[in-house]
Structures are given as C-alpha cells and as structure tokens.
Amino acid sequence: MRILQPGITLIEDSGRFGYQAFGMATAGACDSYAYRLGNVLVGNQGGEASLEFALMGPTLEFEEEVTFALTGGDFTPTLNDQPIPLWHSCKAGPGDTLALGGVVSGRIGYLAVAGGIDVPVVMGSRSTYLRGRIGGLDGRALHKGDVLPVGTGSIGTPGRQLDDEYIPFYPTEIAATVVLGPQDDWFTERGIATFLGSTYEVTNSSDRMGYRLQGEAIQHVKGADIISDGIPLGAVQVTGDDQPIIMLADHQTTGGYTKIATVVTPDIPKVAQASLGSLIRFQAISVREANEAYRQYEERMKRAAWHLED
Amino acid sequence: MYSEPRFLPAGDQALVMELGDTFEEACSMAIRSLVASIRAEQVPGVTETIPSYRSILVLYDPMVSGFDVLVQALSSLFSRLDVHAAPKGDVLVVPVLYGGEVGPDLPFVAEHAGMSEEQVVAVHASRDYLIYMLGFTPGFTYLGGMDERIATPRLERPRERIPAGAVGIAGKQTGIYPIDSPGGWRLIGLTPMRLYDPHRDPPILPSVGGYIRFRRIDGNEFGAIAAQVERGEYQPEVIRQGGAT
After folding, report:
1. Which of A22, A182, A264 has the CB atom closest to B204's CB atom?
2. Fewer CB atoms inside 10 A, N or C side of chain A?
3. R_g (Cα) of chain B, nearest Å
4. Where are chain B's structural domains?
5. How close, in Å, is residue B183 to chain A by CA atoms?
6. Parallel, antiparallel or unpaired: strands A82-83 and A59-61
7. What mean pLDDT is predicted for residues B128-140?
8. Interface membership of A47 toward B (CB under 8 Å)
C-alpha cells in the first residue's frame, strides 16, 4: 500500500519483549484490545504488524488485493469515498483509496491487514520505537509516499463483523482500575484519599510514553524521588509537582519517581483511548482481584475471537 | 540490605522484589544472583525481569501464576540463594579517546578537580565500574564507584545533541551515551565501540552486575577500531572473572 497522507501513523505489533533489562522499551500497540481484535477480524494468527494512528488517520492507496479491518477510535473512514464500518473486515483491490480523517471518538485507531505489514523484524518485533529509532519503517513515523509491503500467503477473512457486545465505546469520563503500589507508602493517607477520590484531566503532554494528568495534588510523605527502579506498563508515576502520569507502551524501563499505583491490563486500552480533556477517576482493587480480572479479560478476548471465527 | 525481601504489587502482571533501601554493592550482587537463578530455574509465569539498584521488577503472566504463587516461589528461591558463591560479573573493556574535540569538557573537569587532564584520565581509567542498572535509553548504564576527586556538576544548559559513544561525568557518576541524545553530562571522551546496535546479536553489550573498564586509546587506534566497527568486524574485549551467569 502507498501512503498518500500520513496522518500520525506508526507501524506497531504486540511489542518488543525480552530486552527491558537492557533499557529497551517494549513499544507495541497502545490499545492492545483493538489491535488484537483487528488481527482476528482479518484472519491473522496474532502478532502481525498493523498501522497505529493517533488523533489524525492516514489516507492510503492499496496496490494489492487485501483484506483489512479498522478498529479502535473512529476516524470516519471511507473506501473510495463510501463510508465503511469499524470492527468489520472487508476486501479492497489495487487503486482503492482508504481515507481516514481526524478522530471523532477515542484517540487511537488500527488498520489491520491480512498477512500483516511486512517490515523487517528488529530485536524480535516490527514495532516502531521512536526514541530508539528502530522498528517499523526505519524507526520513524510514516511519510507521504511511503510504500508498505503487505505479508503474502494469506487471503484473509473478509466479511467478519465483531459482535456489539465486544465493541468498546470511548467515554470522556473514565473509571480506571488500579492496584495500589509499589510505592503507595510514599504518600500520606490524605494523598491516597485524594488520588482515589478526585478526578484527573488528560493534558496535551500525552504521547505513547505516557499521559500526563492534572488535578488535585497528591501529597507525598517526603518527596517524589526514589532510588530508580523498574517501571511496569500502566504505572501511575507521581512526580515532584504531585501530579500523576500513566506510563504507556513507549514508557522508559526504569525511573526515579514514586509510583502510587498501576492501572490493570484490561483497563490500559480505555486509558490509551482517552482524548484530551477526558476525566479519569481511579478505583483500587487488590492484587488477587486484579489477577482474576486479568484471567476473565483474556477469556473474554477468546470468546470474542470464537464468535468471529465461527 | 533487608534480611527478607519485600514483595510489592506493581499491577496485575508485575511485582517488585525489594532487597534493601539503599544502594550498596552487596545488594547489587544479590540481585544479580537472583536474576540468574530466576532464569536458571525458569520460575513458572515469569516472563521478564528488570533489575535495578535495590530491587527487581518481575514481570509475569497471570494466566500461569498469580502474585501469591510467585511470592512463594521467589521467597523460596531467595532462601536458597548463596550470594557468595556467585561468580563476579564480566568486565567489558571500553576503548576511549580522551580530551580534544571529542572530550570538550575534560579541561573543565581537570580544573574543577585541581588536577591535570592527564591525571583525570588516569583516575577515570584506573578502575572497574559496577553496572548497577540499565535504563533511560537502550544500553545506558548506571555505573557505581567513580573516584569522587573527579566528580563534576552537570552542565547548566544541556547540549542538544550528544553523539553515541560519548563518555561523560555527571556529579559522582560516569557513563556512556549509547545513542545520539540531548544531555547535560560533562563530556571527557568518545568510544568508537557501539554499546547498542539493534542489528547485532547481542544488540546491547553491557548487562547488570557486570563491569565496565575504560581503556585509553590514541587517535590512530580510534580510527582502526572505528573502521572495524563499521565493517561489523570489531570484537569487544570481555574479561571473564568467574563462571557463566
């Protein structure tokens, strides 16, 4: 396929794992729910690279017969000027133009294609990691005129439509479930109560590394600086200004700020889809409940896939 | 270092195993042994570990093991750990061209230390630096044990672009920039070697618990090594101090 207008678009897969001990961020799709279901819709095995676009989608021309699906945020897609649905796989051929606009619901969208976007694998993944300048197309965002190879050997599964029950909607008021810790003991009781009791607004200092939020100050006991340690996906870091940042796909592997809590995996997609000005409220569950909720989330993902593969 | 590790939840797929509340060499040794034994014993559910100064972030798959199961497995592993039996980490030799154009802050560091440039280089290249942690960017090492006589405050205004391979000092720390990046470290030299090369196996040479030794080279040797690196023929010098990890 050929890129006519790039939007803000990267090539991402499920991420680059195994090198975090060496300072290498995983990168990978920010909204793994929409990304994974995109691959199921087009009949991929899983793990194939897709296009990920934020705020502004690309316009592209297909140069081959292809089965594709759009998932995630709504970028008002058209195929040859005709509106097409999301969470649905369809066929396109040489010369067909897929046009996406600015996002009207959510923040991030995915274009999955049967066979995947076939760029070289670097350190076990095709994901673009901008800071490390690797993956995707020369480690960069897409440009006008780029031609992307599509994996061959798969004709795909056009005509699949995700059941309504599995289609997320993207509200501007979000409840994000967290597990408190690892450094919740660095905050006063009042600080924890503020964190769990008030709402935080998504600011424009938000990107694939993390979303910076603004709201009532979260009181530390004695400052925000800890001896640097490892950072998991979803960590809610509270920096010296007592404001939270939620760490996302491109987050650094280590850092020296207190982490009050961690957003649980099933809620990362919701957070990733939060648009500018959205309000986030945090609710805490225990780690045992979170482990169980993760298993249920994976079961649900499996059911969604079974429905499609029927 | 604590007598028993603390286990802290870090969401539904990670936990922190904290061994102490300060950074000390003993803690780092224990962390290195633990990471090695987690890998050797293939603790069920563990997918990756991120060691740091005083703790390990253990990433896991909750479909295989939950928090409680892992705490039990890792506690048991810790109780069986013989830190003193662990071999010392390997030394990675990093050739450095000091001063001149590639080390523009060497004169300042020397003046600040009340030494000659020669003496600063001699002090900097005189010891092995323990790699406590990697982070910040791929392959960036947090090294311990620099001689405090050459400690120098950071630049007040960071440079916009520091080339990959630059060797610098910031406060009591020394380190190497693995990729071009902005930064405020005082630059004293440059290595022609690539600590990070995504297309090489292994892509990142330094690892936690190992050591870095800086070896002074001259312009001729720099050119020769740079040419070898360019051709993909450079063999980094690694000194083994014990068994494999």
Report:
1. A22
2. C
3. 20
4. 6-85, 91-239
5. 14
6. unpaired
7. 92
8. no
